[in-house]
Each structure stands twice: as C-alpha cells, then as structure tokens.
Amino acid sequence: MHQARLNPPQSDLALASHRKQTSASKANWPALLLASWLTLLSDLAHADTSRATQPACGSAPADPAAAQPETLVRTLYDIVSGPAHQPHDWARLERLHAPGALITPTQHQPQNFSAAPQTLTQFIALNQRLFAAQGFYEQEIAQQVQRFGHIAHVWSAYETRRTAHGPVAARGINSFQLLHDGQRWCVLSATWDSATAEHPVIEARPLESLK
C-alpha cells in the first residue's frame, strides 16, 4: 500500500517564492541602485554631447588679450570707450565672451536696486542706443583677480567720463566671471554696482570697499 503524498497548497508555494525573491532583491539593492545611476548618467551624456565637448570660450580664433584675465578685462574697457558716432569693435567684444554669456546692467532706483539680465547681443544694442550721440569713456582704476583652475573672478573698480579727459561722471565696481578653455580666457558673466554715499569708491583705495 502506497502512502499518500501531501502537496502543499499553491498559495503556500507562491508565498515562499515571493519571500525568496524579496530576500534576493534586498541583498542586491546596492548593485541595482548603482546600475540605475550609471544608466541615468549614460543617458544624460548621450542626450546632449555638444554641451560636454564644446570649448568653454567657443570656436572663434583666440584674441591675444584673452591670454590673461588682467589684459582681457582692460581690453573690454577699450572696446566700449570712445567719442560719439565712433564705431566700436563689437565683433571683438563677442570673441572675448563665452557662448551664452550674460551681462546684467544695474541701476539705483528710489525704492530699490534694479537689474536687467541680457544677452551680449542685447547689451551691444543697448550701448549703441545710449552712446550713439554722446561720448563714453570707462577706465579701470584698480583690479583684483581670484583664480581656481579654469575659473576666475575679477573685481575691477572703474570710473567713467563723457570725454577722454573730462571730469569723472561716476565710479563703481565691475564683477566679471571668467572661464578658461585650455587656450584662452573669456567672460561668462558681468555685472556692476555704481558708488553711492552708502558704499563709496575711494579714488586712492578703490578696492578697499570690498568686504
């Protein structure tokens, strides 16, 4: 006489299988998480390879002034300065800026401090409109450069005039953020603040106002 063999219910088999799979998943979750991150990074890299390979300062020929932050910033002053109706080398100004550079003019208002971020093209159009009929001269009076690897920040104290040797119309401090692409420096962003009674720029010691 054969002894009857009892088979466990199907539900018990399914539960046991689920528990086994859950235990295996818990044991492997670090590897699964790492694989997910690697897949995500790979997808991002392949989604837009141009952003990873494009030189930081673009593909235009390097300007000699872009060899050092100090000379680059002083050249910017030369380009924007001049008498009324004099053509400016805006193409050179573009070559000294990174693709997508942002320029942020600022102004003291009665109730606040306003800013108008804009592209380099918009900034050039603004200069053409403002100084078409009047002279504008901007001169650097002090400079401080801070570098780390391929990035740099330049504090540049300035003063402006309506004529080359006329009285000073305004003083302030420009703030430039620069990039180096391995060959030359270029401007990624720029903004400024003009001096006021609350934060003056002292002619003899212009950068002592920095905190």
Under CATH, the topology of the largest domain is which? Nuclear Transport Factor 2, Chain: A
Instruction: State the name of the first-level CATH class of the largest domain.
Output: Alpha Beta
How many beta-strand segments? Answer: 8
Spatial gap, N to C terminus: 99 Å
Quick one: biggest sheet?
6 strands, mixed
Tell the overall outline. elongated
Please state the second-level CATH architecture of the largest domain: Roll
How would you classify the helix and strand content by structural class?
alpha+beta
- Indicate the radius of gyration in whole angstroms: 30 Å
Number of domain modules: 2
Give the fraction of residues assigned to helices. Answer: 25-40%
Output the number of helix runs.
5
Order of helices and strands: HHHHEEEEHEEEE
* Strand arrangement across the biggest beta sheet: 4-1-8-7-6-5
Q: Could you tell me the mean pLDDT?
A: 85
Tell me what portion of residues adopts beta-strand conformation.
25-35%
Residue runs with pLDDT of under 50 for 5 or more positions: 1-6
Quick structural summary:
34% of the residues lie in helices and 28% in strands.
